[in-house]
Amino acid sequence: MNNAPDSPFAHRHLLGIEELSPQDITAILDRADDYVDMNREARKKRDTLKGLTQINLFFEPSTRTQASFELAGKRLGADVMNMSVKSSSVTKGETLIDTAMTLNAMHPDLLIVRHGESGAVNLLAQKVNCSVLNAGDGRREHPTQALLDALTIRRRKGRLHRLNVAICGDILHSRVARSNIHLLNKMESRVRVIAPPTLLPAGIEQFGAEVFHDMRKGLEGCDVVMMLRLQQERMAGSFIPSTREYFHRYGLDEDKMKGAKEDAIIMHPGPMNRGVEIDSDLADDLTRSVIGEQVEMGVAVRMAVLELLARNVTNEIAGVA
């Protein structure tokens, strides 16, 4: 690996935002800032992770996250392998621990995992010798999404502290919401969640967020408006009357945005359901929407995390304290 600036980041895995300190978060974002600039150059590839192997293991379908991790690894020079779980032994009854043992025997250096069950990624991390990165587990966490959101906010607003951030929509099923709440609280911003009662988890107030059921009241004075996808594939019951009624009450449009600050930015982790969570005109408004920037920041953040974790593993192997 190439020499890189020293940082206080000393973790072997990235399993969630909860385990990170404000200094850890800042170290990742600072390094990611460098990669934003690099990714805009004509020559984008480096040999930072040359000789290291990265396996992307996705038990749930993903387009943006998997492609982002794959591109991040390749731009850093890693050997990247995508494992198709649908065609793997998992569909034949292999347990998660058996899968971990099989992967461990291949001696990967970085393992990127998305799984539908909360805590599954933590279990894998206990069974393998390499660094594990959580690309989303159940309803628990999606740490790199929160980090890329933070980088997007910091670059637009110039800071992460003392901001009013509204997270709106399907909070109940959203690991993105949980990771963002953890991160924003650590960085001393004020978090509000806006949703119908049926789409809020029990004890949401204990997460460190103010709760609103009215969009217009919840958006008053906000610097950042973060919309969430309505995850109907995770809804076994009737959580909303209809998507039309949902948009009327909780979909973001010009009228509801009037209460937010004039320079408020609009975010969405994607994929968007236009006309359900957000009006197309707002989603495409380049003066306020940073949805495209979030995708760009995703590659840079994942490059930063891959580098920082790989450096720690390499130092450990070399016996560096």
Task: Chart the SSEs and their pairings.
Elements: H1 22-39, E1 53-58, H2 64-75, E2 79-84, H3 96-105, E3 110-115, H4 120-127, E4 131-137, H5 143-157, E5 164-168, H6 175-186, E6 190-194, E7 210-212, H7 215-218, E8 224-227, H8 243-250, H9 254-257, E9 265-267, H10 280-283, H11 291-318
Parallel strand pairs: 1-2, 1-3, 3-4, 5-6, 5-8, 6-7, 8-9
Helix pairs in contact: 1-5, 1-11, 2-11, 3-4, 5-6, 5-11
Instruction: Classify the helix fraction into a percent range.
Output: 25-40%
β-strand amount: 5-15%
Strand order of the largest sheet: 7-6-5-8-9
Low-confidence regions: none
Mean pLDDT across the residues is 91
Q: Give me the secondary-structure category.
A: alpha/beta
What is the CA-based Rg, rounded?
20 Å
State the total count of DSSP E strands: 9
Count of alpha and pi helical runs: 11
Summarize the main sheet.
Answer: 5 strands, parallel
**Would you list the SSEs in sequence order as H and E?**
HEHEHEHEHEHEEHEHHEHH
Distance between the termini: 17 Å
Task: Choose one word for the global shape.
Answer: globular
Give an overview in words:
- With 321 residues, the protein is an alpha/beta fold.
- It has eleven helices and nine strands.
- The chain has helices at 22-39, 64-75, 96-105, 120-127, 143-157, 175-186, 215-218, 243-250, 254-257, 280-283, 291-318, and strands at residues 53-58, 79-84, 110-115, 131-137, 164-168, 190-194, 210-212, 224-227, 265-267.
- Helix 2 links the parallel strand 1 and strand 2 (79-84).
- Helix 1 (22-39) crosses helix 11.
- The longest helix is centred in the last third of the chain and has 28 residues, at 291-318.
- The chain is globular, with a radius of gyration of 20 Å.
- The model has no long low-confidence stretch (mean pLDDT 91).
